[in-house]
Amino acid sequence: MINLPLLFALQASSTQVEGGLFDFNATLPLMALQFLILTLIMNFIFYKPVSNVLDERDEYIRNSLTTASASLLKADELTSKYEQELAESKKEAQDIIKISQQEAQQVVSIKIKEAQQNAAKLVSEASYQLNIQKEQALKTLEDQVDALSDQIKLKLLDNESLI
């Protein structure tokens, strides 16, 4: 490598003072060569490793995005599937509830009919019993009326025979 302080010292020691600020001697190509060498060294030492790290990072981000997109699609599919299953389950539950309500309504109507039939049967039996009791009461009354009329008749006949 070229030692810069040594070059400056050599240049300062020269006693020739020519063009001043824009002096085109051996230092200009030497500086250009030094710039190119430093650029190559910087490229190998810093730029390539940094660009490799950046490329790896880009690839990792792309892979992560691809994985995330696939996971998101899968999650969307699962969500739609579960929503569809939930809708079907709700419909089945509503159908079961509807059927249960209809069955309960039928059971209630059957029980009401049975209760009405039992009530009508009880009313008819009570009416029949009342009619039987009425007939018995009337028969008993007729018997009593007949007995009383016979007694009255006997008393009247006894009283007429006494007169």
From TrEMBL:
<keyword id="KW-0375">Hydrogen ion transport</keyword>
<dbReference type="Pfam" id="PF00430">
    <property type="entry name" value="ATP-synt_B"/>
</dbReference>
<keyword id="KW-0472">Membrane</keyword>
<keyword id="KW-1003">Cell membrane</keyword>
<comment type="subunit">
    <text>F-type ATPases have 2 components, F(1) - the catalytic core - and F(0) - the membrane proton channel. F(1) has five subunits: alpha(3), beta(3), gamma(1), delta(1), epsilon(1). F(0) has four main subunits: a(1), b(1), b'(1) and c(10-14). The alpha and beta chains form an alternating ring which encloses part of the gamma chain. F(1) is attached to F(0) by a central stalk formed by the gamma and epsilon chains, while a peripheral stalk is formed by the delta, b and b' chains.</text>
</comment>
<keyword id="KW-0138">CF(0)</keyword>
<dbReference type="GO" id="GO:0046961">
    <property type="term" value="F:proton-transporting ATPase activity, rotational mechanism"/>
</dbReference>
<keyword id="KW-0813">Transport</keyword>
<dbReference type="InterPro" id="IPR034679">
    <property type="entry name" value="ATP_synth_b"/>
</dbReference>
<comment type="function">
    <text>F(1)F(0) ATP synthase produces ATP from ADP in the presence of a proton or sodium gradient. F-type ATPases consist of two structural domains, F(1) containing the extramembraneous catalytic core and F(0) containing the membrane proton channel, linked together by a central stalk and a peripheral stalk. During catalysis, ATP synthesis in the catalytic domain of F(1) is coupled via a rotary mechanism of the central stalk subunits to proton translocation.</text>
</comment>
<keyword id="KW-0934">Plastid</keyword>
<protein>
    <submittedName>
        <fullName>ATP synthase CFO B' subunit subunit II</fullName>
    </submittedName>
</protein>
<keyword id="KW-0406">Ion transport</keyword>
<keyword id="KW-0812">Transmembrane</keyword>
<feature type="transmembrane region" description="Helical">
    <location>
        <begin position="29"/>
        <end position="47"/>
    </location>
</feature>
<comment type="function">
    <text>Component of the F(0) channel, it forms part of the peripheral stalk, linking F(1) to F(0). The b'-subunit is a diverged and duplicated form of b found in plants and photosynthetic bacteria.</text>
</comment>
<dbReference type="GO" id="GO:0005886">
    <property type="term" value="C:plasma membrane"/>
</dbReference>
<keyword id="KW-0175">Coiled coil</keyword>
<comment type="similarity">
    <text>Belongs to the ATPase B chain family.</text>
</comment>
<feature type="coiled-coil region">
    <location>
        <begin position="131"/>
        <end position="158"/>
    </location>
</feature>
<dbReference type="GO" id="GO:0046933">
    <property type="term" value="F:proton-transporting ATP synthase activity, rotational mechanism"/>
</dbReference>
<dbReference type="InterPro" id="IPR050059">
    <property type="entry name" value="ATP_synthase_B_chain"/>
</dbReference>
<dbReference type="GO" id="GO:0045259">
    <property type="term" value="C:proton-transporting ATP synthase complex"/>
</dbReference>
<dbReference type="InterPro" id="IPR002146">
    <property type="entry name" value="ATP_synth_b/b'su_bac/chlpt"/>
</dbReference>
<keyword id="KW-0066">ATP synthesis</keyword>
<keyword id="KW-1133">Transmembrane helix</keyword>
